[in-house]
Amino acid sequence: MATVTRGGFLTLAGIGTAAVLVGSELGFDLAQATEIKQKLRIAGATEAHSLCPYCAVGCSLIAYTRKEADGSVKLLQIEGDPDSPVNEGRLCPKGATSMQLATSERRVGQPLYRAPGATEWQKMSWDDMLGKIAQRIKDSRDQTFVATDKKGNLVNRTDGIAFAGGAAFSSEEGYFATKVMRGLGLTHLEQQARV
Amino acid sequence: MTNHWRDIKNTDLILINGANPAEAHPVGFQWFMRAKLDPARGPGKGGGAKMIHADPRFSRTSAVSDMYLRIRTGTDVAYFGGLSNYVLQKNLHHADYVKNYTNASFIVKDSYNFKEGLFSGYDRKKRTYDADAWGYETGPDGFAHRDKTLQHPRCVFQLLKKHYSRYTPEMVSTITGIPKDAFLKVAELVGEMGRPDKVMTIVYAVGLTQHTTGGQLIRSGAVLQLLLGNMGRPGGGMNAERGHANIQGNTDHAISWEILPGYLKIPQPGQKNIDDYVTKSAPKKSDPNSWNFFGTNYKKFLVSLLKTWYGSAATKDNDFAFSYIPKPLGNSSWMTIFDRALQGKMQGLMLSGMTATSIGPDSNQVLQALAKLKWLVVMDPFPTTSSEFWHGPGMTPASVQTEVFMLPTTHWIEKDGSFVNSGRWMQWKDQVIPPQGGARHDHWITAELFQRVKALYQKNGGKFADPIMHLTMDYKDPHKPLLDEIAREINGKDLKSGKQMATFAKLADDGTTTAGDWIYTGSYTEKGNLSKRRDGVQDPAKNDPTGMGFYPNWAWSWPLNRRVMYNRASADLDGKPWDPKRPGIAWNGSKWVGDVPDYPPKMNPKDAKAWMPFIMNGEGGGRLFSSTMADGPFPEHYEPMESPVKNALHPDNSASPVAFLYDKAAGRENRFGTPDEYPIIATTYRLTEHEHFLTQQVPHLVQLAPEPFVEMPTGLAKEKNIKTGDMVRVSSKRGKMEVRAVVTNRVGQLDLGDKKAWQVGIPIHWGFVGVAADLHPERSMLWLVNALTPFVGDASARTPETKAFLVAIEKM
Are A121 and B406 an interchain contact pair (Cβ–Cβ within 8 Å)? Predict the structure, then answer.
């Protein structure tokens, strides 16, 4: 049902754009061509609901994917969700290009390690990285843990490790980070809201 | 936001300060324009709203506003204070609202006073206030004395009137640089908004928060809104535009040193047990008709959290493992982390989707701090100025001993979970595609690290491991918890029945309920995950039954799906909406209808014992006067730490007397500049095409806005013989940028009484990492705007003063 409505929405959007930009001077109906191109791009696609990753207006997105022959899932298109009471289908330049963020070639592909004094990164396996970091966390916790402060108060805190982040990941990940970091005794816990 | 994006269409007047929504929140801005232009905007009068933009820089927001006021950055307390003064002097406040719905009638102790820019209780040596000097005068029952005639010389109303009587239109003009006539035109418009059938909204962003007086800049707007009776009403409120997709959700969940989830205060050293903690932390009932809902239930929320985190290890006998919660040394906020690192007291730092170097403040000092760490973990999909800091500006890689771990993480679209927008709407998203390349989810990395640390303690022992051993990990796979499982945990359950809690009103303090964050209790009930609901504008008649734009079955809004907070204040004492055309909630004779009431659903407002409207604080009324701020009970104008002028109100106490001076306290060199060396006022801002620093990795957006620049006024450029496109050096006491000049009339000169000052603006987005930096590797070393900003922040929140500082500009 929703997809049919959305098809109509796309058609209207296509006609509006074509009329303003070029009219029918090209000798064929650009609106129709745009519509056909759009339809081909998302034909047989799976529709999923997402949200814009940038500011906090909270614009809803529709993301189209297709399962490829090799079993991988290809992201075909992202557009504004017309049902949302927040954005009613509209997106700004950032939201409208969010597909380029999602499919970027500039991502870090594997864990990277930089030893003290090194001038280059070196590739390292997840297992080795996580093993090393876990050891650092334990060592720093043990070395800087304060069970009782100078006034004799029971404080049970880790003074020498800090955690910051979370404005870009899901709420549930944020809650989980709070829980784990407090569990490890951290008190230096900060997020983008401060800065 | 007390309200939400779509609600802005319901207003009559929009004041925008320290924000530029047309460019920074363009899609949200449609609701501002609908208020102005759309004849079918809703039950209010169609269209016709007015918009006033007070900002250092003329922007696209200004271009479509009814009035633009060039305000000096960081002086909005004078602007709002001047408006409050105008309203009070002309008796234009909403009298019934002020008398019954605020603390205007509360009588303050005679130890309160304000002289020469200092409130009573000041300790000059420690640079702090003792807020006890500002309490209410109380009777033997502990309740505050009140004078409902508002005539008592020490009632809040009279003290407020006296306090702001100094904020005359002339004084406002001298401080802010806004011409007196323009200010008075605004005051006239604002003055009409105290009528019950009118409503105004105030919208702001980090242009208000990022100052040494940030908390009070916002409070000064809230005080004005309370005087006009606009808090709690559709089309009203104080509305913060958040700048990141989930800054709201992860503040609610307390990735923030001073709180536990749901804004419970962090326990302090010396608080020996839960009762002691609650006594010192929870709001206290100060009037017989105040419900004090938060204070009354504080213990239930904390015990439910401890049961969630420590499970069967949290028992009545061990005070629900209260001792497991770490108690901080002192302030542990953002700048404190880097201050301690500089002092060699911080060994490790984990950054997840946040780059310390670019964020600053004083990026050069932050770089030094990172170089003093033993280890740094960066969890991010892209390289950042923090993962790459060791070959950043001023760094010699071979001498940087910090061990750096770069862990590639998944994007928003590669995982499900919720984002919470500025309007507190918790909206669920799908996992659209699987993790790309070698990326892993942040929470799976956190979970795996936790399991490995736990295993090390099990194997080798170590310092007090009980909180680690007992931290609940009741997920199908504790190494890979599902966000759905965590969402259920956050909501909480009844341990006796095993059912999901439907409301936080049913949480208990005896260990029989859980709730990971009580303000989200009700989001994931036995009915399922309510943040997935999608009844939106596809059928407005059905999905927006009140026509007010609440859309109650689209996603879920905290608390309890309430769309406008404090909405009891949207109706009069009898329960009738102040403006029947724009109701929030209304009493129909047997219950409250409309939005989800911020009030007991069946409490008869005419009952003599009916609660006052603001149920979350001890007073039961909005606080015109507050003893919870570090820098005074009334907002007062103080100059930024770096300013070209002395405070016109009290030159001897010019800047905030209580802002914490990190560099001075640590014995580091003075890093503040003087107006002789650095005569130009600078502020920072965002562009539409970029979001913070992340979009430096998005080629289309870098193409649209490719390079950093300083935007400077035509007159100043002429003085210095600078043209658009020329390379200029912008320097502060702390660092420099070398960027192109963009000469415009959007920024300008301010007339500050006996002095004139230039004001410039610099966009924040660039650094030495990203698409543009790859093209200009050497030049990009001098692209960090926060190399200029001062390492000092708000007295209460410690938010850095990155929006007001002094620079010098020279042509290269």
Answer: yes
